[in-house]
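Input record (one chain):
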Amino acid sequence: ASGVLANTSPSGAFDVGGKLVFGDEEIMSKKAHGTSEQPVQSDLLYEVDVSLADKICNFNRHFAERAGYFRYTNWEDIVLASDQPVTFYDSVTGKPLFQAPIGRSKESF
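The corresponding structure, as predicted from the sequence alone:
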């Protein structure tokens, strides 16, 4: 999903560090749209299936996409073609979550 990067340095890199924060069960409680207030965005990156992404993100507690699903998207092409880390976004809010690969090759990522 498109969006403006937040919490970045002037070079575009994310600030890293801090402690892992675990949420409680309230995170997964029933909300307006499954376990979220709204569905995933309609313009997801990598040509992913929006209905599958919505099912996984908002109506699922146990499983994710099938193994190898990324091979049916253009994710690998984009990551391998990039000369810098790729930013990954939350599929509902569009907020940036992390950048990768950092500290390893694109191929090992």
